[in-house]
Amino acid sequence: MSTEQKIFPRFAGKTVLVTGAGTGFGAEIAVRAAQEGARVGVHYNSSKQGAERTAERVREAGAEAFVVQADISSWEAIRGLADEVFEQAGTLDVLVNNVGDVATEQMSWRELTQESLDRVIDVDVKGTLLMTHEFGSRMLEQGHGAIVNIGSTVVVRGSARAPQYAAAKYGLLGITKSYAAAFAPSVRVNTFAPGFMETGATLEREDWKSGRREKLIAQTPMGTIPPPEVVAGTALFLATEDASHITGAYMLADGGFNMVGA
Question: Active-site positions?
Answer without folding.
Answer: 165
